[in-house]
Amino acid sequence: MGKLEAYVRKGERVTIRDVALGAGVSVATASKALNEQGRMTVETRERVQRVAQRLGFRPNAMARALVAQRSFTLGLLTNDTYGRFTLPVVAGLSAAMADRGVSVFLCAVEDDPERVRLNLNAMEDKRVDGLVIAGKRIDRALPIALPPQRMPVVYVNAACPPQGVGFVPDDDGGAYAAVTHLLGLGRRRVTHVSGPRDFEAVGLREQGWRRALDEAGLPVPKAALFGSWSEGFGYETGHALMRTPRAADRPDAVFCGNDQIARGLIDALMHLGVRVPDDVAVVGFDNWEIFAQATRPPLTTVDMELKELGSQAGLTLLDMIDGKPVTEGLQRRPCRLAVRQSCGGQAR
Amino acid sequence: MGKLEAYVRKGERVTIRDVALGAGVSVATASKALNEQGRMTVETRERVQRVAQRLGFRPNAMARALVAQRSFTLGLLTNDTYGRFTLPVVAGLSAAMADRGVSVFLCAVEDDPERVRLNLNAMEDKRVDGLVIAGKRIDRALPIALPPQRMPVVYVNAACPPQGVGFVPDDDGGAYAAVTHLLGLGRRRVTHVSGPRDFEAVGLREQGWRRALDEAGLPVPKAALFGSWSEGFGYETGHALMRTPRAADRPDAVFCGNDQIARGLIDALMHLGVRVPDDVAVVGFDNWEIFAQATRPPLTTVDMELKELGSQAGLTLLDMIDGKPVTEGLQRRPCRLAVRQSCGGQAR
DNA sequence: CTGAAAGCGCTTACAG
DNA sequence: CTGAAAGCGCTTACAG
User: InterPro entries attached here (chains A, B) (predicted)?
Assistant: First the structure.
């Protein structure tokens, strides 16, 4: 058995044929031995496995796919090229899938229907078992002309058609948790500053904020303030808020619709000599480390658990592929509050 | 020909057999017709193509791969989960590859050798034609135990072994361009503030800065300042710089090692009442939109052209796969200066 | 010009 | 217990 390597033509990849030859069995037997299928003497099975090991045999997944009618491959289509929202999703998806032997193709499509077509065709040609379509906002669909051939599809952070399956963060719940945390720390006048009204996420976060105040029996201090997702808007609003004549009407906490707004707002407060969190506590949304950590003090913020979202989406897709029943419609997955210092006091 | 669909078993994917049946030719002929191979009457060829079209036939890429001994598939391994540097690379790679019919598997591996092994095995099983390995700093290798089977590999933003092929941004050139631009605008005392010394990129950017000053016959005003890649460091340094006793010793421009430092530095200057760019011009590095745009005034900064880097890497990998000769070693690709307002005056 | 055969690398009934 | 055969969906010499 020392001359095992003689069986494999040099430079060529080792195939199951080489293994069979080396173990002195048929290809069929080799296959069964390697896959723990069929009945045979342990001696044979082990011999085959030993040879395979020795030769560094790795079965050709495409050949297997051809017979299994299953490629153990997924496609990920996204228009979020900057990846701020999508990359964690992909990382979570990719990791969860890798553990199950499935690999994922990444298709960056911008918002160009032509590129969508191109990539969708590629995914069809490669016979992916399913598709995840990831966007950057939950109320917009990608310009996708019906994935082909009834291929299973799950949507993440994107609009999901009537009978579809989709995952998004629970914006309402995340907001509720943030505001509740603030209230638990004794804050009573919690204002909300957020992005553009036409984002569904904005409405949901506002709703969670409102719900928390209601349940605590607090009056909603003043309508939430809506603008853009930018630091600039946070900065202006910080100034505007502090311009309120009676101090008792000023907020003692601000729940922001994203971390950039929170960052700008904190800068404004600092600029005005208002102490954070002592005078005004601030909480953000996104847990975008680069902002959350750079803020002085570091920002308490809602984490959307995007990795988890990606892995859930993948697992569900696998179930669909296996023909298992999955719950239809949009699922809102829990967010997690990342507590740092801007909210004042880790606990109460 | 109206009953063409009768040839394809319902629910099943249409194969070349269905096309052949529908066109009344053999599978071999159908194949040749579709691939524009071999000789046959245009009539036959067109009939086959028409039928294929009609049936929505898409050839199974895995079956073709099996015979072509080529999967038209690439693997992308990265440890940059947050994707700040890698996502543009992937987008560029993915787009360029899609145009050539090759798809890319994304493997997010963190820095865990176990996951690297797992994903590398998956890539081998799937018989990818090549691998691109993308990192987040040019002087660190990923913990990769020799890609298997002499598979072609190209490195991006990562250390590259002796005989390897790699692509990184031209840090020296980018810095040189930035500083030259500043000098062209009349600045004479250009200081450099950057990240940790042990990053190779830091050394290269410093070198470009120095070179530009030398060529202009200007003395290097003072040693560059090295710290961390953070806003905080930029902020502190901004203060420190302005503390210099004699005004004539203070810089009239600062070239920063990244956009975060630039951002912090600008904040400090603003805080001190120093006008940007009037009193001090500032240039960053990275062109990370979220910072470059949020800065007041918007930041002039060096763009590393990461998308381009990704597409170049992919194209080169394709050449290697095709057995074409490619230039060995690390290639430093040009950066581009994104001119905004923080440098003062778009032109001279 | 067209088709039968062999083969890419595997797996899976089905015989022996 | 083991192996020959057929087949997954294609392509490519090679005959006719």
Answer: HTH_LacI, LacI/GalR-like_sensor, Lambda_DNA-bd_dom_sf, Peripla_BP_I
Largest interatomic CA distance in chain B: 92
CATH number at A13 reads: 1.10.260.40
Render the burial of A284-297: b for 16+ CB within 10 Å, e for the rest. bbbbbebbbebbee
B208 CA vs D14 C1’ separation (Å)? 63
CATH value at residue A216: 3.40.50.2300
Strand partners, A332: A168
| pLDDT tens profile B108-134 | 998 888 999 999 999 999 999 999 999
Whether residue B130 contacts residue B153, with contact meaning beta carbons closer than 8 Å, is answered with: yes
Distance CA A298, CA B339 (A): 31
Q: For residue B83, list chain A residues with Cβ-Cβ distance below 8 A.
A: 83, 87, 91
CB within 8 Å: A61 and B99: no
B126: closest chain A residue by CA: A61
Residue A135 belongs to what domain range?
67-168+306-333
Are A134 and A196 in the same domain?
no
Instruction: Establish if A137 belongs to a structural domain.
Output: yes
Question: CA of B186, closest CA in chain A: separation in Å?
Answer: 31
Taking the Cβ of residue A228 and every Cβ of chain B, the question of whether any pair is shorter than 8 Å is answered with no
Closest nt to residue A17, judged CA to C1':
C9
Do B181 and B83 reside in the same domain of the chain?
no
In the prediction, which pLDDT does B286 show? 96
Q: Do B24 and B96 fall into the same domain?
A: no
CB contact residues (below 8 A), chain B span 109-168, against chain A: 115, 118-119, 121-127, 149
Nearest nucleotide (C1') to the CA of residue B42?
C1
A343 found inside a domain: no
Domain assignment of residue B346, yes or no: no
Q: Read off the tokens for A150.
A: 């009834």
Q: Do the Cβ atoms of B98 and A127 come within 8 Å?
A: no
Residues A256 and A218 in one domain: yes
Q: What is the pLDDT of residues A268-312, one digit of tens each?
A: 999 899 999 999 999 999 999 888 888 889 999 999 999 999 999
Q: Give per-residue pLDDT as tens, B191-224.
A: 999 999 999 999 999 999 999 999 999 988 767 7
pLDDT in tens, A75-105: 999 988 776 788 899 999 999 999 999 999 9
B197, B241: one domain:
yes
In a domain? residue B100: yes
Q: Which of A58, A87, A107 sits opposite B125 (nearest CB)?
A: A58
Number of structural domains found in chain B: 3
The span from the CA of B138 to the CA of A309, in Å, is: 31
Greater confidence, B326 or B6? Answer: B326
Residues B57-97 pLDDT 10s: 999 999 999 999 999 999 999 988 776 788 889 999 999 99
CB pairs under 8 A between A and B: 117
- CA B81 to chain A, closest CA, distance in angstroms equals 6
SS3 of A110-152? CCCHHHHHHHHHHHHHCCCCEEEEECCCCCCCCCCCCCCCCCC
User: Sorting pLDDT into bands at 50, 70 and 90, what band is B347?
Assistant: very low
pLDDT bin (cut points 50, 70, 90) of residue A330 is very high
